[in-house]
């Protein structure tokens, strides 16, 4: 069963530990099964790719530098109000629509209390 993660695609996060500690980037992808996230410009690795035929007949290969996934516990969402990393909590509000009560969940930064 995949874990529930508070970080979503498009969030701006800061790396807390590892070789890229302190750097920030935008989340490109979230992998819930392995509890990892792919962050733009963070954890860049060199991959050796084999030369292969493409649709147009050209051969591409060699060294490719690309981002690798990082564990979600090593990143925190950056609070837009003060540009510092913050934990996330969820605020549940009841809103009446079409005569019915509906629960609306909003992500809130713990540091400032403002919506993310």
UniProtKB/TrEMBL annotation:
InterPro entries for this protein: KOW (IPR005824), Rib_uL2_dom2 (IPR014722), Ribosomal_uL24 (IPR003256), Ribosomal_uL24_C (IPR057264), Ribosomal_uL24_CS (IPR005825), Ribosomal_uL24_KOW (IPR041988), Translation_prot_SH3-like_sf (IPR008991)
Annotated signal peptide: none
Gene that specifies this protein: rplX
Keyword Membrane tagged: no
Organism ancestry: Bacteria, Bacillati, Actinomycetota, Actinomycetes, Micrococcales
Assembly and binders: Part of the 50S ribosomal subunit.
Region (Disordered): 94-116
Family to which the UniProt record says this protein belongs: Belongs to the universal ribosomal protein uL24 family.
Pfam families in the cross-refs: KOW, ribosomal_L24
GO biological process: translation
Residues of the KOW domain: 6-33
RNA-binding found in the keyword field: yes
Protein known as: Large ribosomal subunit protein uL24
Record's GO cellular component terms: ribonucleoprotein complex; ribosome
CDD domains on file: KOW_RPL26
A GO term, aspect molecular function: rRNA binding
Gene3D superfamilies from the UniProt entry: 2.30.30.30
Keyword line: Ribonucleoprotein, Ribosomal protein, RNA-binding, rRNA-binding
SMART domains reported in the protein's UniProt record: KOW
Function: One of two assembly initiator proteins, it binds directly to the 5'-end of the 23S rRNA, where it nucleates assembly of the 50S subunit.
Domain of life of the organism encoding this protein: Bacteria
């Amino acid at each position: 069963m995949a874990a529930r993660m508070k970080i979503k695609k498009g969030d701006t996060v800061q790396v807390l530990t590892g070789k890229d500690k302190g750097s920030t980037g935008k989340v490109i992808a979230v992998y819930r099964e392995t509890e990892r996230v792919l962050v733009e410009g963070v954890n860049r690795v060199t991959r050796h790719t084999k030369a292969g035929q493409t649709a147009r007949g050209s051969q591409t290969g060699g060294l490719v530098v690309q981002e690798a996934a990082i564990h979600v516990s090593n990143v925190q969402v950056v609070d837009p109000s003060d540009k510092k990393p913050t934990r996330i909590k969820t605020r549940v509000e009841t809103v009446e629509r079409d005569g019915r009560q509906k629960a609306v969940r909003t992500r809130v930064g713990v540091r400032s209390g403002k919506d993310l």
